[in-house]
Specification:
Its EC number is 3.6.1.27. Keywords: Hydrolase, Membrane, Transmembrane, Transmembrane helix. GO terms for molecular function: undecaprenyl-diphosphatase activity. Residues 56-165 form the Phosphatidic acid phosphatase type 2/haloperoxidase domain. This is Undecaprenyl-diphosphatase. This protein has 198 residues and is mainly alpha-helical. The chain has one domain (30-192). It is built from eight helices and no strands. The protein has helices at residues 2-12, 20-32, 36-47, 50-76, 103-116, 122-141, 147-186, 188-192. Helix 2 (20-32) packs across helix 6 (122-141), helix 4 (50-76) packs antiparallel against helix 5 (103-116) and helix 5 crosses helix 7 (147-186). The radius of gyration is 19 Å and the shape is elongated.
Length: 198
């Protein structure tokens, strides 16, 4: 399996003299596109309904659970990154911690798959889930992940989204109610102007 993993990495990863435009695109998706996740969560909270806020809390819990699971997996099974074993070409600076699973993809897909479970959030879920494809390519191309790291992220994210959906009925509503006690007074001027929803 490791031979397949490394062969796929060498097939996708950057060459010794990569095209600058392709590198810039990879950095955009591999380093900065992840910020669309918190932007989506904040925008959804400010402009969405209470039902959507319920799904946002659930998606946030899914992300936290998935990242916790990824850290535990990394400690229990420390898998070196490609550059740590002299494989391929690392185009960005990254710590030499465990590569499996990808934290970027785990975070993104944990939120995306959670959204996909609910009709009101499904469109955002599809956008984020599909964003994971160029992000996965970029993380491999930039030399910081193996293809199996991406598959691991998908598996962890699906499981965390499923667990969060099971538990969401108990924890999401109380969290939303508590958050709204602070949100409505703090954002009262913006709510009155209709810039954010009540």
């Amino acid at each position: 399996m490791e031979a397949i993993n490394q062969s796929l990495f060498l097939l996708i990863g950057a060459s010794a003299q990569p095209d600058r435009g392709v590198v810039a695109l990879a950095i955009l998706f591999g380093e900065y596109a992840i910020w669309l996740v918190p932007v989506t969560l904040v925008f959804g909270w400010l402009r969405g309904s209470d039902t959507l806020r319920h799904w946002l809390i659930e998606a946030s819990a899914s992300a936290l659970l998935a990242l916790l699971a990824a850290q535990i997996i990394g400690v229990l099974w420390p898998h070196p990154r490609p550059f740590a074993i002299g494989l391929g070409h690392a185009l960005i600076v990254h710590s030499a911690d465990s590569s499996f699973p990808s934290d970027h993809l785990t975070f993104l897909w944990a939120v995306a798959f959670s959204f996909l479970m609910h009709p009101e959030a499904r469109r955002a879920g599809w956008v984020l889930a599909l964003l994971g494809l160029p992000m996965a390519w970029a993380r491999i191309y930039l030399g910081v992940h193996f293809p199996f790291d991406i598959a691991g992220a998908a598996s962890v994210s699906v499981f965390s989204a499923w667990l969060s959906a099971l538990g969401g009925r108990w924890f999401a509503a109380p969290v939303v109610r508590a958050a709204m006690l602070a949100y409505r007074p703090l954002f009262a001027p913006l709510i009155r102007r209709g810039w954010v929803t009540r």
